[in-house]
Amino acid sequence: MQVQGYFDLRFEAVRDAFGAMFDGTQQRGAGLCVQIGGETVVDLWAGVADNQGEQVWHSDTVVNLFSCTKTFTGVAALQLVEEGKLQLDEPVGRIWPEFAVNGKETITLRQLLCHRAGLPAIRRPLAAEALYDWDVMTAALAAEEAWWTPGTDQGYAAMTYGWLVGELLRRVDGCGPGESIVRRTAVPLGLDFHIGLGDSEAHRVAYLTRTKNDFGDAAAQRLFKALMSEPESISVRAFNNPPSIMSSGNKPEWRRMAQPAANGHGNARSLAGFYTGLLQGKLLDESLLREMTSEHSAGQDRTLLAATRFGLGCWLDQPHVANATFGMGEQAFGHPGAGGSVGFADPERELGFGFVTNTLGPYVLMDPRAQSLARSVAACLR
């Protein structure tokens, strides 16, 4: 496979590892970017972007980043905290009065950002088209009853995070949530990142495919079993209500909507650049970044059925859990996306990392492709 792009000669082993990822595998297309101290040392791409294998992956190809989007959303909310327009520990109902019912009266922004609010899913079955109707989804969440006493347990809000945090942004920032997030995070840093992708950009989007006959690790198999056999569970409702969630990634209406938990579109460069911007203090002041990256929740997750560890809008490293480490430093923070894309920062190395792919793997937490590349980067820095 021909690898395109740039790499500092110190990182030739990373280029080789990235190229080897395509050898004899189902890997179709991918991008990798690493920045250290604000300098780009790796910016690579390879493979194909379309379903027929005819369109090569270009420098400006973008892909659905799924939950990598969540940290952009969290940072936008924290900027509003910095501006005094939101409060981390004030009830959400002050901004969103309809929300303060059915055990949700005390839920705070802090609890939403660290997945302890008790709202990972919606009980009432929703129509497939509800996914694309912001008002229907936020009204359903406003009426929902908390699944547990808020603050007492954790359950990853795979999709609901986007409507919950996004509705606060919409009410406070005076514009659509996608517009708010992009204006606050991507625009200042010049990132090719979108929430609510314009049709004029659709030709640049890589088509998503799933790997076949790869059942992942024990955590992936445990979640898959629950999704197949426990229709009333939190996990099933988190990922299948509305039932269109899991099957919409290539649809134009998915790309057009602004779902701030799951449908940001960008490339490896935009992920690495975002985390570099955070480390350099360009998006949040030092004290809020410290708050964001401190442990707010850790333990067995009621949605993902695996060990998770959260800051505010980001995942924190679990260095001794094989499927839950970013693969670099113990202080690393960032966010994986369904199927394998990931963005993170390693503060110890002043490093921003982005890996994106259109070949979706089955893993629940971290994808071994990204972990392997991150370890290769770390080895080059020793």
TrEMBL record:
Signal peptide: none
InterPro entries on file: Beta-lactam-related, Beta-lactam/transpept-like, Beta-lactamase/esterase
Beta-lactamase-related domain segment(s): 21-370
Domain of life: Bacteria
Pfam families assigned to the protein according to its UniProt record, in alphabetical order: Beta-lactamase (PF00144)
Listed name of the protein: Beta-lactamase family protein
